[in-house]
Amino acid sequence: MLPYGRQSIDQSDVEAVVSALGSDWLTTGPRVAQFEADIEAVAGAPAVTVTNGSTALNTAYAAAGVKPGDEVVTTPMTFVSTASAAATLGAKIVFADIEDETANIDPRAVEAAVTTRTRAVGAVDYAGHPADYDALRKISESVGAVLIGDAAHSIGSTVHGRPVGSLADLTTFSFFPTKNLTTAEGGAVASIRPDLLKRARTYRTIGVVREGLRRPDEGPWFYEVHEFGENYRLPDVLCALGSSQLRRLAAFKARRQQLTARYDELLADVPGLRLPIQREGVDPLRHLYPVRVLDGRRREVFERMREAGIGVQVNYIPVYWHPVFEDLGYQRGMCPVAETFYAEQLSLPLFVDLSDADQDRVVEALRTILGS
């Protein structure tokens, strides 16, 4: 089965991990700080590493001060963690519909959804195409909310030369194997605001602080916990892999863009298919190549592609369709653009080591199915 996504590991990655295994530090050591510095160089903002993309979101919401009774406005077209990571902190999730063209959260829908109780606005860079952060910032600032970017799909993308990581108050990344780079499991939170970054770092380290102590004279070993946190520390071994992967990010981007351009060209005249767009000024590092299968044929195409050994995927089920949200009173139909998008969406295989021949196989299979 040809997968829809897959990591790219070479000998330099293996050597980096082996070197870490042979060092004095398997966790909380120098490779953590190095990886965080390497992320900052790409993201344009200082970063804190965490155990995965979901814990990155939870850390970002905690750093933003989300607490029971607060509202968090976010998109339904994402993996459930974008919403659940705030819900577990007690927030009420308010879903705003998406833009038809990009599948990113629609600023107009956000503007209609925010209130004085809105603590955070959470955007997602769907498939690697950054959300409209300039418009979202104006809206979030108008109600005193923190702007959070879920950039699990988009590290390495830019908007008018500004890197993802510098566009929101807090930005989260995922380094799952199918993403644009991997640490096996891992994630990070970047912030352009030092106060929020400090809160994120403390939260991911179980709330432990060594400065501003209430009892500073206890001894040099002493530490305190002023607010509860979580143990989300990413170990040195995985950070070593991350730094090695980041050295290849430019090559990863070039190959994904090449594959995206080939899909654009090879699928341009296929009937019953709608291709993704790229807005002016956006230079995306695409995590997904999402097409829209029209005329109610998405399930048929999905099943026939799988039967042909091609691992297409659907990204994503509208979050509020999940029973955990249905049980809270959320109902289908509340975000019609997202639901229409979901009914048509299909992710084609896209990963760095996808060969031109395998991509041609994907295209030919899709052409054959839609032409029958």
Automatic annotation (TrEMBL):
The keyword Transferase applies. InterPro entries: DegT/StrS_aminotransferase, PyrdxlP-dep_Trfase, PyrdxlP-dep_Trfase_major, PyrdxlP-dep_Trfase_small. It comes from the Bacteria. One of its GO terms (molecular function) is transaminase activity. Belongs to the DegT/DnrJ/EryC1 family. Its cofactor is pyridoxal 5'-phosphate. It holds the Pfam family DegT_DnrJ_EryC1. Keywords: Aminotransferase, Pyridoxal phosphate, Transferase. Transmembrane segments: none annotated. SUPFAM superfamilies: PLP-dependent transferases. This is DegT/DnrJ/EryC1/StrS family aminotransferase. The keyword Phosphoprotein does not apply.
